[in-house]
Design a protein that fits this description.
Elements: E1 12-14, E2 33-41, H1 46-59, E3 63-69, E4 78-86, E5 97-102, E6 115-124, E7 138-142, H2 144-150, H3 157-169, H4 173-184, H5 195-209, E8 231-234, H6 235-245, E9 248-253, H7 260-269, E10 276-279, H8 283-295, E11 299-304, H9 306-311, H10 313-322, E12 326-332, H11 349-354, E13 363-366, H12 370-387, E14 390-396, H13 397-400, E15 403-406, H14 422-425, H15 480-492, H16 497-500, E16 504-508, E17 514-518, H17 522-533, E18 540-545, E19 547-549, H18 553-561, E20 565-570, H19 576-584, E21 592-595, H20 604-612
Parallel strand pairs: 1-21, 2-5, 5-6, 6-7, 9-10, 9-11, 11-12, 12-14, 13-14, 17-18, 17-20, 20-21
Antiparallel strand pairs: 2-4, 3-4, 3-15, 8-15, 13-19, 16-18
Helix pairs in contact: 1-3, 1-4, 2-3, 3-5, 4-5, 6-7, 6-12, 8-10, 17-20
């Protein structure tokens, strides 16, 4: 296909703008999918109830995606947990809810919570007052507060509502009971369940029996198709597991939403494998400690969000100038302080690409789903050590704190690349005498511009390293010619990265007029939107960006070349990804933007509306 000639104008459209009036079906309308939501105050076990229900569905062989909304506080304030259940893989929220469970009056607002007309609103009659007049929904009262008190466990309201939901949804109670026992059933005595487990099982039964006369919602659950070994986890947990498999043995971090669960996972697992996990005083210390561990030869990482990333900027300059491998995960969120940090967004991209000081090469990778979280962790550590540089990994809150199911990861297929090490190479490439270290030059020019790396303890690998510009032996210099030589060599290091890492994944119809580019959590949403668009006669090709820096230029140019219309979908207000593409790809000037920055993740119907809309670029 020849190039699509267009004027140098692109269309910027946000999901908040009025649509064209064409009816866009909700994703669940293709059947085999439904959504359940519970709403209450933070501290009332909202997330626990959602996780238990989701795990039960996974055990039954269904696919799930869990979305959380919560305030920036430990207790109080409305929090919700939504479990979308489907007979096909999903990693995106639905715009509608079939069953809404309300433990608090704020959680019973059907308009705010998007309860489907004809859906069921199950509420605690002690906390929620039903409307006086008729509604489009069926209101079902349950005295969860009274039941919980009668059981001697006032905190069991969430479990009572969970049992009631199981009956309404048609979920096998045996599966749900097994999940509850696993969560709370640590044995107090041999052969006896814990008191907490016994009370929760009793609460499940109370709720299940309390709604015997309620008709199920109009959308039945997908059939049970049990699968062996499927995992239920978040992208943060998948990445942390991948880091462990990749050989990461040092983590330093400071708690920050939504990155904290990476530290929590590694704190529980690293010591079992001879590793160290440290919670330190701030992100400055975390970055410097990770770089220090990387300097000694350990695979090391840290994780943070935007505010912490800002504090790490100088340390990343240190990693670049000393050519020390380190992995930094940025779990993006819309802003600093409180409130919006509990929402999702992709506003950190420009900082990941250009933040910091000096011109030191680094790599920026991106995660789009649970499977890629695991594989990207392996890639990040391999690339960091191969190129002796910092590797950033972009996540966002929708992935970091959302949860879903995925098949077991391929641990046996993992291949580790530890890079060019002096201990293995010895006196080759002009390293010097391996026994004495005489002549060893840590930063000497090589054929591939990647120097030979020695770590403390390597016999003959003694060298000098500091944070300033240096000559090939590491000694500080301000000689212009030496400075130019060092900068030029570092800039050449990543020149062959396309041979080592697949930066783009292409899915869909290469011959379709429409092409879509995205990274991160919008990707699964786009996949589903394209699946819904195809029966309506609209096809497209999706370009999934797994490496944002260095850009895979040749493949991107070919992508633009074969599509008449290109839509770039991203979660920010300034089209940062499109700006990045325009800086490197000549044809990116004609691309359209679909932007969302209200703090909520993209919904399938929002992307589908843009896919179905004709191109608005003037030819």
């Amino acid at each position: 296909m020849g190039r699509f000639e267009a004027s140098p104008v692109s269309v910027r459209r946000t999901v908040h703008e009025r649509s064209s009036g064409v009816r866009i079906p909700a994703p669940d309308e293709r059947g085999g999918s439904s959504s359940w939501r519970i709403g209450g105050l933070a501290g009332e076990g909202i997330d626990t109830a959602g996780d238990l229900l989701a795990k039960a569905h996974v055990r039954a062989g269904r696919h799930v995606w869990v979305t959380r909304h919560f305030p920036s506080r430990i207790r109080g304030g409305l929090t919700t947990c939504t479990v979308r259940v489907a007979g096909h893989p999903v990693a995106a929220p639905s715009g509608v809810v079939d069953v809404l469970v309300a433990l608090h009056a704020d959680g019973a607002d059907p308009v705010k919570q998007s309860l489907r007309p004809g859906g069921i609103l199950l509420y605690d009659e002690s906390a929620v007052t039903p409307p006086d007049g008729p509604t489009d929904h069926e209101w079902v009262a349950l005295d969860a507060t009274g039941m919980a008190k009668a059981l001697g466990e006032p905190r069991a309201r969430n479990t009572i509502m969970l049992g009631a939901s199981a009956r309404i949804l048609g979920l096998d109670m045996t599966v749900l009971e097994d999940v509850v026992v696993e969560r709370f059933g640590k044995k107090r005595d041999e052969g006896r369940l814990s008191e907490v487990a016994e009370k929760n099982l009793a609460a499940l039964k109370e709720g299940f029996d309390g709604v015997a006369d309620v008709s199920p919602p109009p959308r039945p659950l997908p059939p049970e198709t049990p699968r062996q070994g499927d995992l239920f986890l978040s992208a943060n947990e998948a990445f942390a597991y991948g880091a462990l498999v990749a050989g990461c043995r040092f983590y330093a971090g400071y708690p920050i939403t939504p990155a904290t669960t990476i530290m929590e996972y590694l704190a529980a697992t690293l010591p079992r494998f001879g590793g160290v996990c440290l919670q330190v005083e701030d992100e400055i210390a975390a970055a410097n400690m990770a770089i220090g561990a990387g300097f000694t030869g350990a695979r090391a990482m840290t994780a943070t969000s935007g505010p912490g990333l800002s504090l790490m900027a100088e340390a990343m300059g240190l990693a670049g100038s000393t050519e020390t491998p380190v992995v930094i995960v940025d779990c993006m969120r819309p802003g600093p302080s409180t409130g919006m940090p509990t929402k999702t967004g992709q506003e950190d991209l420009s900082f990941l690409l250009h933040g910091g000081h000096g011109e030191v090469p680094h790599v920026v990778l991106a995660v789009e789903d649970l499977a890629s979280a695991f594989t990207t962790a392996i890639d990040a550590f391999n690339l960091a050590e191969h190129y002796q540089c910092a590797v950033y990994v972009a996540l966002d809150l929708a992935l970091s704190m959302g949860k879903g199911d995925t098949p077991p990861f391929d641990v046996d297929g993992v291949v580790l690349d530890r890079g060019k090490r002096f201990a293995r190479v010895g006196a080759t490439e002009g390293a010097g005498a391996p026994e004495t270290g005489e002549g060893y030059a840590r930063y000497r020019e090589t054929a591939d511009a990647i120097p030979l790396r020695a770590v403390p303890g390597d016999v003959g690998g003694r060298h000098y390293a500091n944070s300033t510009e240096h000559d090939e032996r590491g000694y500080t210099t301000e000689v212009p010619a030496t400075r130019v030589a060092m900068v030029d060599r570092r800039n050449r290091k990543l020149g062959d990265i396309d041979t080592l890492h697949q930066g783009l994944i292409f899915e869909g119809d290469k011959d379709a007029p429409l092409g879509i580019i995205a990274f991160g959590s919008p990707v699964p949403v786009i996949r589903e939107a394209l699946a819904l668009a195809r029966p309506q006669g609209v096809a497209g090709e999706l370009c999934v960006m797994r490496r944002l820096l260095p850009l895979p230029r040749a493949e991107l140019d070919a992508f633009f070349d074969r599509h008449e219309r290109v839509l770039v979908v991203e979660g920010n207000s300034t089209a940062q990804l499109l700006s990045h593409l325009r800086a490197h790809c000549p044809e990116a000037h004609r691309a359209e933007s679909l932007l969302k920055y209200d703090g909520d993740p993209f919904r399938v119907d929002e992307v589908l509306a843009a896919v179905m809309r004709p191109s608005e670029v003037t030819a």
